[in-house]
């Protein structure tokens, strides 16, 4: 089932709101806010998943984090993902899967090529699921591991839920994403520069849709 539990409106632009639950960090007294979004993509769900976890393509579409460098890639086993079809996908060079650690160069300012910071992340899930009404879905989750938990922690969820367009008969995908921020740093961000984070997620949302539909 989807972890969003209907709390993110279909087609919703990036918005800042109350903390949304995540699989690992959850919601606690240290949770500050979430940024969430949804967008319809004219492509199958598997194609969307492949675009997201292929770090080789990030420089060509991902203005927010154009560089993703894998720093740890454990052996892939039967427990790495819950779907046999995904084993072939995650075995490709430069693809993310559960257990992978990676760093990203973050570019918060869309008008500057200078990176804002570098963040260390770990992937917890690349998996298949079904919605309550039987639709195919894929989920990717990763979280920040660069600072002590009480100072800063965040966890990001990507869900791709497939359906069939009733007019064209083609497969389309709703991409639902959110990131929940917590820790002392997140509390400061919430009341100061939250708009920069919201705008960056909107840029990611729009760039990802365009890149997936044209590739």
How would you describe this protein?
The chain has an 8-stranded antiparallel sheet, with helices on one face. It is of the alpha+beta class and 215 residues long. The protein has helices at residues 45-53, 58-61, 84-90, 184-190, 194-214, and strands at 15-17, 31-41, 67-72, 101-106, 117-130, 136-144, 153-164, 171-182.
Binned strand content? 25-35%
CATH architectural category: 2-Layer Sandwich
In terms of quaternary structure, the protein is single chain
Give the helices and strands as they follow along the chain.
EEHHEHEEEEEHH
How many strands, what sense, and barrel or not for the largest sheet? 8 strands, antiparallel
Strand order, main sheet: write it out: 1-2-8-7-6-5-4-3
Shape call: globular
Instruction: Output the CATH homologous superfamily.
Output: START domain
**Strands, total number:** 8
Gyration radius (Cα, Å) is: 16 Å
**Helix amount, in percent?**
10-25%
The CA-CA distance between the termini, in Å, is: 28 Å
Could you tell me the mean pLDDT?
A: 96
């Amino acid at each position: 089932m989807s972890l969003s539990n209907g709390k993110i409106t279909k087609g919703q632009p990036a918005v800042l709101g109350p903390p949304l639950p995540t699989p690992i960090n959850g919601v606690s007294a240290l949770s500050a806010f979430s940024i969430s979004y949804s967008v319809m993509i004219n492509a199958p769900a598997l194609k969307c998943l492949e675009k997201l976890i292929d770090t080789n393509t990030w420089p060509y579409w991902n203005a927010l984090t154009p560089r993703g460098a894998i720093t740890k890639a454990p052996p892939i086993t039967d427990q790495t993902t819950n779907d046999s079809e995904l084993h072939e996908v995650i075995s490709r060079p430069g693809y993310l899967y559960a257990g992978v650690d990676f760093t990203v160069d973050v570019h918060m300012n869309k008008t500057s090529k200078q990176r804002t910071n570098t963040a260390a992340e770990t992937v917890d899930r690349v998996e298949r699921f079904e919605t309550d009404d039987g639709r195919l879905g894929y989920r990717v989750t990763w979280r920040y591991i660069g600072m002590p938990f009480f100072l800063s922690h965040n966890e990001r969820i990507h869900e791709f839920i497939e359906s069939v367009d009733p007019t064209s008969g083609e497969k389309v995908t709703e991409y639902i994403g959110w990131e929940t921020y917590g820790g002392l740093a997140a509390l400061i961000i919430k009341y100061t520069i939250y708009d920069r984070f919201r705008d960056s997620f909107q840029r990611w949302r729009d760039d990802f849709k365009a890149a997936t539909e044209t590739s």
